[in-house]
Amino acid sequence: MENELTTNHLNFNGQVALVTGAGRGLGREHALLLAARGCKVVVNDLGKAYDGTGSAEGQVADEVVELIRSAGGEAVANYDSVEEGERIVESVLAAYGRLDIVVNNAGILTPEVWSELTLESWQRTINVNLTGVFSVMKAAWPVFVEQKYGRCIMTSSPAIFGAGVAAYAASKAGVIGLANSLQFEAKKLKLDIKCNILVPQADTRMTRDFGTAIDQRRLEQGKSAARSVPEEVMQRLSPDKVSAMVVWLAHSSCDAEASMHEAGGGYFAQLRWARSAPLYATEIEGVDGAPVPENVRDGRQTLTDFESGDMPLSGDGSMGSPSALERVFAHLKSPPEV
Ligand SMILES: NC(=O)c1ccc[n+]([C@@H]2O[C@H](COP(=O)([O-])OP(=O)(O)OC[C@H]3O[C@@H](n4cnc5c(N)ncnc54)[C@H](O)[C@@H]3O)[C@@H](O)[C@H]2O)c1
Prior knowledge:
Blueprint: E1 16-19, H1 25-36, E2 40-44, H2 59-70, E3 75-78, H3 85-96, E4 101-104, H4 119-147, E5 149-155, H5 166-189, E6 192-200, H6 205-220, H7 231-234, H8 243-249, E7 260-264, E8 267-271, H9 282-285, H10 293-298, H11 300-303, H12 324-333
Parallel strand pairs: 1-2, 1-4, 2-3, 4-5, 5-6, 6-7
Antiparallel strand pairs: 7-8
Nicotinamide-adenine-dinucleotide binds next to helix 1, helix 4 and helix 6.
């Protein structure tokens, strides 16, 4: 690809990225931007409906490959499901001989609310959104370790904070724990491997088709169809406005570790965990040394005091230094004055 970038631009010359679910939506934009910055890209997509049903239409991946090549970039398609991580990584290595970046983007969203959610639908969601990431990272990890280098991005969702899609929310919370754990492993090995988390918001096939399914349900229930996000707002949420964050997290100069970043419509923010002030009840008025529920009830003020707490980092074992467990042990060795 014609490289008209200045030295100030983040470029990926010589690097190889795998972007899963890159045939459309967010993944497509991540793939296009990485390729525009000189990265060779494997465009993985088996082409399914937004809820993971329907027959595979792998040509969505071909279309993105064609776009990249016609702009002078390098890309190949892969049509395997992310549940077949080993096959995907084999195809990356066969095409380019290395793998520097994995953008775990493929995902499905099943529209059932909790009362309608079936085990089949739960499993379909978990299989793609969580086990799929496991499968791809399990295969990519030895390559990262061998190279002593890698960048991995997980795609979570604002749904983790509670939305009417329990299976999806659970799967998207799961990838956060996985990213934190992989970052922990990388630190243990002292390797330049970074795993970070994207929490995106964009107008894509997924959000459109999901909105239509919700409207349909409301109409069937005799309610008015009312999209939660107005059309004029949707139109400002094009997926290309998210990819800058992914490309930054994918770069060798990115020092973020197990961080969570929101991105949508040109808005970016980092999310962190917060720990309240500690409540030590054991030695105060417990029974036989064990706290009683009243200790917790009466300590609510402390437990909601985040001003005196801290913001532990992810990917750091038990979250922060000292970790929660270390605090407990320290407290047990020297209980506070009562
Ligand atoms: N759009 C949003 O607002 C939003 C919000 C939060 C999270 N996300 C997440 O972002 C990611 C991309 O979503 P999108 O909105 O672009 O959705 P999309 O439906 O437009 O695109 C997802 C792509 O993933 C592919 N895919 C599905 N199952 C696959 C599998 N098993 N193997 C390989 N590819 C598969 C689909 O064929 C599709 O092309 C998903 O993980 C989604 O959960 C999106």
